[in-house]
């Protein structure tokens, strides 16, 4: 049996980047659980940049898998479960815009954010974390041909 190395490599890389994204998002959530201070603000802002890069990587690698992987683009293009997965990922991305804008604004201002805004930002990240499990559920359905 010959293993499709490019397909396996893309799948592995895709999963590793997803795990890294979850870790970064959870780290932000934990950091926002404490009181705001400059060190935490710098760290969550740096993590947010990493999060954006990882999210972009997931999209690029994911579409490379869909286009050049073992199943090919035709498997995905007409599958509503695939597009639902993309839509959920997009919603998570839209939710992440609020914390990103806040981190950028907070870094530009002279002082620290108030505790209410800090906690509110944590809730936005929690919403992202709560939506994340929908993605593997949709992937499982898709892998089993549901939606075709």
UniProtKB/TrEMBL annotation:
The chain crosses the membrane at residues 12-31, 51-70, 82-104, 125-146. InterPro entries: DUF2214_membrane (IPR018706). Pfam families: DUF2214 (PF09980). Keywords: Membrane, Transmembrane, Transmembrane helix. This is Membrane protein. It comes from Hylemonella gracilis str. Niagara R.
């Amino acid at each position: 049996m010959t293993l499709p190395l490019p397909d396996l490599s893309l799948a592995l890389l895709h999963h590793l980047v997803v795990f890294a994204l979850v870790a970064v998002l959870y780290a932000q959530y934990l950091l926002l659980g404490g009181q705001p201070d400059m060190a935490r603000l710098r760290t969550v802002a740096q993590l947010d940049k990493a999060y954006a890069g990882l999210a972009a990587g997931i999209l690029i690698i994911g579409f490379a898998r869909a286009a050049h992987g073992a199943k090919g683009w035709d498997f995905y293009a007409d599958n509503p479960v695939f597009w639902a997965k993309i839509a959920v990922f997009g919603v998570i991305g839209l939710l992440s815009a609020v914390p990103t804008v806040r981190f950028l604004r907070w870094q530009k201002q002279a002082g620290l954010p108030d505790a209410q805004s800090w906690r509110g930002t944590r809730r936005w990240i929690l919403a992202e974390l709560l939506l994340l499990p929908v993605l593997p559920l949709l992937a499982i359905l898709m892998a089993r041909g549901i939606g075709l």
